[in-house]
Write a structure and sequence with these properties.
By secondary structure, the chain is mainly beta. Helix content is 13%, strand content 52%. The strands form two sheets. Strands 1-2-3-4-5-6-7-8-9-10-11-12-13-14-15-18 form a 16-stranded antiparallel beta barrel. It has a two-stranded antiparallel sheet with strand order 16-17. The protein is globular. This is Beta-barrel porin-2, OmpL-like. bbp2.
Amino acid sequence: MKTITTTNYVKNAFLFAFALLTTTLSFAQEEEEEKKLSITGTVDAYYRANLSGPNDENAIAPGSSFANLPGFALGMANVVASYEGEKAGFVADLVFGPRGTDAVFASPMYSATGNIVNQLYAYWNVSESVTLTLGNFNTFLGYEVISPAANFNYSTSYLFSYGPFSHTGIKADFAIDDDWSLMLAVMNPTDLTEFNPTGDYAFGAQVGFFGQYVNFLLDDGAYEIDYTGGFDLSDDFFLGINGAYYDNDGVGFAGVALYPQLATSENFSLGLRGEYFVETGDFGAIGTGMEDTSVLAVTLTGSATIGDLIIKPELRLDSTSENAFIDSDLDPSKSLSSFVLAAIYAF
């Protein structure tokens, strides 16, 4: 009788321990899965008005991308699903709305209903210092990005607008040490993000050193050299820098942009973008229809955070070497001043 009792006791204790272990592992696995899979994104909208030009059907905006619609306008809803495994993961980045349409402007190539894919790639951490990525990923060139929450200024620069937005291909990232990195990529021709209809390929490279990056793109005879970086001049003052040169058989652009940014309090910062951009040949970015046109664009932006909401009031002045705009009397003009008030919610 005693033997049976002891056996039942051991059996019950074993079953209890097994159930406890199973439950613990289940909760741990669920917690681990929750940490790995994430849904993030942004929603943005804005109001835009010309101060020195018309605001009706004749309204005109600078030739740079985004924030170019008159009156109250929509930006985009950006939803990013990502999964980070121990060795591999993926990112599915979807965009909806006018800003998203501009971001994937060269699509649809394959789908007649349109493309909402901003990024779609999988990656493999081959080792602690090597990562391989295959798919569609945002460009490695330039200071600014597509997401409005990741830029200080709401409107974008000419350098950003006329460089590539995204690439589709394979890239290898090498973390050489804490201060140096290297990226090498083979990609479809620029803007062909769904598939490759030409049989040609572009090649990219990036060298990173102490937070500064030199980028190279070679694409069917055209090439771009880009420097992106910045320096913390104090705890509250940051200076970002972007410079680029693009050439396609004598037609292209060159420019430089400075981004001084000052944090005046925990919830408010003030930033200025000063950009000089010049076309070589008849590149057509500024919109004058003339060769070798240049533009000086100065943008002053405030950034106030209220929890996950960002409010950005912005004043911008574009001054061109040739007539690229019209004034309030519909006469040709070399300058345009404008105001934007944007709301961005990041989740």
